[in-house]
Amino acid sequence: MKTMTRLTLPVLLACSTLVQADMAFEIKDDGTLKRPQGYREWVYVGTPVTPNDMNDGKAPFPEFHAVYIDPESFKHWKRTGKYREGTILVKELVSVGSKLAVSGKGYFMGDFIGLEATIKSAKHFPNEPGNWAYFSFTDAENGMLKATANAFPTAACNACHQASAQTDWVFTQFYPVLRASQAVGHDGTVGR
Amino acid sequence: MKTMTRLTLPVLLACSTLVQADMAFEIKDDGTLKRPQGYREWVYVGTPVTPNDMNDGKAPFPEFHAVYIDPESFKHWKRTGKYREGTILVKELVSVGSKLAVSGKGYFMGDFIGLEATIKSAKHFPNEPGNWAYFSFTDAENGMLKATANAFPTAACNACHQASAQTDWVFTQFYPVLRASQAVGHDGTVGR
């Protein structure tokens, strides 16, 4: 039985670590959010494009916005149709690189120019509407991303999300991967 | 030693299965490609948009093209900067759903309307340029995706890819995730 005990302890420790790693973000003791890592291998949900040339040269979100959800929260979304405690969505901003290619006229991606994130957490943001807080790591002056970010004041982002977002403060209406997979138990691929 | 033998055999079988599962596609005995599964959880690389209203109502690829690479081939790309034997890229076609949102004027994704794929394989396509073959699962009449697809004749797709694609017949120039991660050993996130 002594042998059993020695084997069991590491297994229990490993499980404890897994539960903590379940969240795809880290909020520091000072309340700032560390810049998410590895998000380009999360689940992509959709890309609006609001080009500067369609917005008098000053798009509020220039220009492509590639949006991702962390994989564990996507699993929960497929099963329940809800954003779980600890959901993080990342929005990577990409410039328009060109408007013409062999495939036709349009908008084609250029360079990465910014990174934003939103997190739903009653634990961390008990007073935010829907428990969603919003962050930006964009540093236009230095062209690099910031290492940490503070949450925006509630009014800065929430007003538009509250008024116009379809599902729990998220603009699900523009993210077809989320629309197709909401509570259906799979990724929503047509004909699956 | 008899006990060791019994334990080893299942382990060897499991490894053999893993090697086969390394490829994210299945080509049937009749040469057709089965429609890929699970690609919305692969690695997203970029989204051109060639809207019908910028192409006289007849975009060759209507309208958003969300492009993914299978995760094992992305690992190889990050490490070597090359598309490995068995790379598959999937292009999911999405309609334009709207052109105005609270975030500005632009193009916003509507519904899934088609699916295409390209595979690099010297084993399966020894005579294709670069060993790339191209497939479409789009079935505009039925609005569903086809279960299988034959490779297009070489001239149908390869001419544009050969003339204009940046890297090994792939339009890497329009996929910032691939550009940023080519042979750098990580996902290319700025400041990482």
What does this structure look like?
- The structure is a homodimer of 192-residue chains.
- Chain A has 192 residues and is α+β, with helices and mostly antiparallel strands.
- Chain A contains four helices and nine strands, in the order αβββαββββββαα.
- Chain A has helices at 2-21, 71-80, 154-164, 176-181; strands at residues 33-34, 43-46, 64-69, 87-101, 104-120, 132-136, 138-139, 144-145, 148-149.
- In chain A, the strands form three sheets. A five-stranded antiparallel beta sheet of chain A has the order 2-3-4-5-6. A two-stranded antiparallel ribbon of chain A has the order 1-9.
- The longest helix of chain A is centred in the N-terminal third of the chain and has 20 residues, at 2-21.
- Chain A is globular.
Q: What Rg of chain A do the Cα atoms give? A: 19 Å
Helix count, DSSP H or I runs of 4 or more residues of chain A: 4
Q: For this entry, what is the oligomeric state of its chains? A: homodimer
Largest sheet: spatial strand order of chain A: 2-3-4-5-6
Structural class of chain A: alpha+beta
Greatest contact between two chains: A-B, 61 and 61 residues
Q: What is the tally of beta strands of chain A? A: 9
